Amino acid sequence: MTSSVGIVLVSHSADLALGLRGVAQQIGSDTVPVVAAGGTDDGRIGTSYDLVLEAVRQADQGAGVLVLPDLGSSVLTTRTVLDDHPRDDVRIVDAPFVEGTVAAVVTAAGGADLDTVAHAAEEARHVRKL
Amino acid sequence: MSASSDTAPHETAAPRHESTVVLPADLHARPAGKLAQAAGQFSSAVELDHDGRTVNPTGVLAVMALGATAGSTVVVRAEGADAEEAVATLAGLLATAE
């Protein structure tokens, strides 16, 4: 089996990122690397440059990494990390945090490439849940 | 369960298959995830019908949004080279969903 696209969840809350990781792995697959980067270095609400950087490293199996931010500084921190460490196969995606993550993990579990996984996450915005 | 294939005389139409499944359980998040992953493995175009709506089963969110509950009917349809296998696999997953 070839390696899977990795997913990084950047949230202000460590609990939120870890909880979403658990949900995504139940619906999708535990073979997709999903790494949570939630909260500050000392566990408070906020985001951490170092946690995001390390999460990208951990999620990287060689097929690329997609980073999903929740809000605000999650976006800013991720952008700073990616600007400092630019790679074509690591990208941030504008997607609903929960739905986008689930769609991305399920798509990655099927062996899809980074473009396809990113597209699945973005498309989540247009899928009504009712 | 029923399956059919087109034998249109004037076209070299791709094989089409279809199967109807009565869901033994609600089509909630986990079975939807399994279905979407399985659907992505086939080259055929696949569709899922439920209650007048048609979705592409490779989209896990769209499958969940069908809101298909236990006892309701879902039709799996595929068109393409591996249509028969696709329908058999997806119908099998739906029929054994927990």
UniProtKB/TrEMBL annotation, chain A:
One of its GO terms (biological process) is glycerol catabolic process. One of its GO terms (cellular component) is membrane. GO terms for molecular function: phosphoenolpyruvate-glycerone phosphotransferase activity. InterPro entries: DhaM, DhaM_N, PTS_EIIA_man-typ, PTS_EIIA_man-typ_sf. Coiled coil: none annotated. Keywords: Pyruvate, Transferase. Its EC number is 2.7.1.121. Residues 4-130 form the PTS EIIA type-4 domain. It catalyses: dihydroxyacetone + phosphoenolpyruvate = dihydroxyacetone phosphate + pyruvate. It comes from the Bacteria. It holds the Pfam family EIIA-man. PANTHER family: PEP-DEPENDENT DIHYDROXYACETONE KINASE, PHOSPHORYL DONOR SUBUNIT DHAM. Component of the dihydroxyacetone kinase complex, which is responsible for the phosphoenolpyruvate (PEP)-dependent phosphorylation of dihydroxyacetone. DhaM serves as the phosphoryl donor. Is phosphorylated by phosphoenolpyruvate in an EI- and HPr-dependent reaction, and a phosphorelay system on histidine residues finally leads to phosphoryl transfer to DhaL and dihydroxyacetone. Homodimer. The dihydroxyacetone kinase complex is composed of a homodimer of DhaM, a homodimer of DhaK and the subunit DhaL. This is phosphoenolpyruvate--glycerone phosphotransferase.
TrEMBL record, chain B:
InterPro entries: HPr, HPr-like, HPr-like_sf. It comes from the Bacteria. SUPFAM superfamilies: HPr-like (SSF55594). Keywords: Sugar transport, Transport. Pfam families: PTS-HPr. Residues 14-98 form the HPr domain. PANTHER family: PHOSPHOCARRIER PROTEIN HPR. General (non sugar-specific) component of the phosphoenolpyruvate-dependent sugar phosphotransferase system (sugar PTS). This major carbohydrate active-transport system catalyzes the phosphorylation of incoming sugar substrates concomitantly with their translocation across the cell membrane. The phosphoryl group from phosphoenolpyruvate (PEP) is transferred to the phosphoryl carrier protein HPr by enzyme I. Phospho-HPr then transfers it to the PTS EIIA domain. This is Phosphocarrier protein HPr. It comes from Streptomyces armeniacus.
